[in-house]
């Protein structure tokens, strides 16, 4: 028996992204040619680009300046699984870092920039940059129908 994976339609993707409070996983190539994956908070624009923030001195900035080709995934951690992934080109936006960081703090943290973490991140004496991720291809999946009769085992993963 072959089970079909249902793709999400555009309105489902938008709803998923609106409610997703999970990091975007960004895959980039290192100088040695091996890929690495980073998990970064994201927001997205009306024209379908993702915005991330990181310190200007972060290795990801150096690597993306050298090679802007990347891949990404945003997917939930609990069944039924759904998400999007794709290939993209990234661009470093020097002047938008703090604005994007403030937006991300509002999206992911209760009390946003007024939270202890928000105050700490915004008070660092470092240059923050934005990473604009422009998808070239997007693939979506939704296992809602496939897993409707399945009881998933909850992950027992905890941070040490």
Question: Can you characterise this structure?
Answer:
This protein has one domain: Electron Transport, Fmn-binding Protein, Chain A (Pnp Oxidase, Chain A, Roll). The protein has a 7-stranded antiparallel beta sheet with strand order 2-1-5-6-7-4-3. It has 160 residues and is an alpha+beta fold. Strand 1 and strand 2 (35-40) form a beta hairpin. It has 4 helices and 7 strands.
The general outline is: globular
- In whole angstroms, the N-to-C terminal distance is 41 Å
Strand content: 25-35%
CATH class: Mainly Beta
Number of helices: 4
* Gyration radius, in Å: 17 Å
What is the assembly state of the chains in this entry?
A: single chain
CATH A-level architecture: Roll
Uncertain residue segments: 1-5
Question: SSE string, helix = H, strand = E?
Answer: HEEEEHEEHHE
- Number of DSSP-assigned strands: 7
Helical percentage: 10-25%
What does the main sheet amount to? Answer: 7 strands, antiparallel
């Amino acid at each position: 028996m072959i089970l079909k994976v249902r793709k999400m339609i555009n309105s489902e993707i938008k709803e998923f992204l609106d409610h997703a409070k999970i990091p975007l996983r960004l895959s980039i190539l290192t100088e040695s040619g091996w890929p690495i994956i980073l998990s970064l908070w994201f927001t997205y624009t009306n024209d379908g680009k993702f915005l991330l923030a990181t310190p200007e001195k972060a290795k990801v900035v150096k690597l993306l300046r050298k090679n802007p080709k990347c891949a990404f995934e945003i997917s939930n951690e609990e069944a039924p699984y759904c998400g999007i992934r794709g290939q993209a080109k990234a661009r470093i936006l020097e002047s938008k870092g703090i604005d994007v960081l403030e937006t991300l703090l509002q999206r992911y943290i209760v009390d946003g920039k007024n939270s202890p973490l928000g105050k700490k991140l915004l008070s660092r004496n470092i240059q923050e940059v934005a990473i604009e991720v422009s998808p070239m291809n997007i693939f979506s999946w939704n296992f809602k129908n496939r897993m409707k009769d399945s009881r998933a085992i909850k992950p027992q993963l905890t941070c040490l």
